[in-house]
Amino acid sequence: MTTSTSSLKGFRFPVLVADIGGTNARFAIVRDAHAQTKAFEPVSTAGFPGFAEAATASVFNHTALMPRTAVIAVAGPVTGETIPLTNADWVIDPKELIAQFGLESVIVLNDFEAQALALPGLEGAAVEQLGGGAPVPFGAKVVLGPGTGLGAAAMIHAANTWIPVPGEGGHMELGPVDAEDMRIWDHLERVGGRVGAEQVLSGSGLVRLSRAVAEAEGQSRRFESGAAVTEAADAGDDVALRTVACFVRALGRVAGDLALAFLARGGVYLGGGIPMRIERHLRAPAFRAAFEAKAPHDALMRTIPTYLVRHPNPALEGLASFARTPALFAVELTGRHWSAQESSAG
Ligand SMILES: Nc1ncnc2c1ncn2[C@@H]1O[C@H](COP(=O)(O)OP(=O)(O)OP(=O)(O)O)[C@@H](O)[C@H]1O
Q1: 280, 166: one domain
Q2: Domain total of the chain
Q3: Stretch 258-281: mean pLDDT, rounded?
Q4: What is this structure's pTM?
């Protein structure tokens, strides 16, 4: 029943695309290679025991279309015959999904690889430029997304194809830089003996950071969630405002580090659930200042554009682009492609 292939000539439509995050499970159907992506209402990941139940509630209860292929993006590495999610209790079992939904094949990719697949096509109202110059055509692109976790991936152009490069950039080291950071970092909880970027740049990171800011200020202020922090900041709460300011500086620095690592002259894109919720803070000069403060490369950094991703479902759009035009992308499918037949899909 299982066949893993490293290449794919084409997808059998309709294609179900899915983006399973730690908080939200999002689904869409692409009817054929020329059709628009039809997105369904997202459902809460924790509200369902697994993929099949969530897909039924979000998609199959609302359409008679039966997909022949499923392309699923998950937070976490795809390393075995079943795929446990990093930030949720689900285990994706491609063979079971093939049997249960009569699919011909299932492909499972990393969630930020899916976001990377969307980058070449994101334009117009789907993105808002936050500074820097014009993107270099076919320059490397980077996407960084604070949400339940901190995802990151690059998109490289070579040999007439776009190559998504998933990774664990969200776990890079995050150190204090200015005097305000030094005060805060003294109080920041270490996880596994260190402060990785995700421990600050995520929903739970906002809460962790707010605790450190409050302690540094000698206050006993507590917030229950990332949303509570940003809402309090909107209401003018001092601890929450300092927390968001520190979050924005840290996001600028990590985005800048990734831009340097990949020489991302095609732009750095801010995805994930949080940037859209703090958009006015990202438009203030502090974000770009932190992004550009990369001596000896500050002149280079000033040219690199940063973008806020406004598209509501960039990962689904990326998977849909891949399904419509697989030849435009070089996606390694070895060990990530399951087929109902013994032969390879397509
Ligand atoms: N108003 C808000 N301000 C700040 N953070 C928020 C707000 N609302 C939700 N969040 C945080 O956003 C996170 C959800 O992000 P997102 O929408 O990217 O979910 P996801 O796709 O399920 O996550 P991931 O793909 O990172 O696992 C939660 O941790 C939540 O605490």
Answers
A1: yes
A2: 2
A3: 98
A4: 0.94
